[in-house]
Design goal:
Elements lengths: L6 H19 L14 H4 L3 E8 L2 E7 L7 H14 L15 E8 L3 E2 L5 H7 L6 E6 L2 E5 L10 H11 L6 H4 L3 E5 L1 E5 L1 H4 L3
Antiparallel strand pairs: 1-2, 1-3, 3-8, 4-7, 5-6, 5-7
Helix pairs in contact: 1-3
Length: 196
Amino acid sequence: MPDQLTDGEKQTLLRLAREAMEHAVQGKKLPPVDDASITPHLREQGASFVTLTIDGDLRGCIGALEAYQPLVDDVREHAIAAALEDPRFLPVDQTELGRIRLEVSRLTAPHPLEYSNSADLISKLRPHVDGVILKSEFRRATFLPQVWEKIPDPQEFLDHLCAKMGAKPNLWRNTKLQVYVYQVEEFHEMDYNGTA
């Protein structure tokens, strides 16, 4: 991924994500960002996903596929949304805050993946490298590249992604969908503070 973030920038984003999540869960007003800690790189428009886990299990994940605001604001907004607005989970409770681990994924801009049929699509996917977006009419769903760790088989990966989109799992086999791919730069709290 071009123009990677520095370790200091990653630590700043993780700190701000945790602060935003904790303030929101506790019903406190979000403090303004300390401009001195924000590099020009973090002020650039960026798209991110924030993932929350407890003991390795998903607890929330929300993000944007396209950049529409400064990366620092995007990460704070999605940390709050992952904690309180993921429709798959109840909102995070204050008692869970100490057990939650945060992961931030910074996305490249998605680009179309051209393919001729389902076999060609399978051959062009890059497991563990690409995040995948499927679009069918008004429906859309994505899996971050990290999902390949749990679903390494490309056919199963697409089945699950169709189901996430609200379609039949085999839709990708017999319908030409719009497919986009992107990459991420992911980093975790445990990479920087020694916690598991």
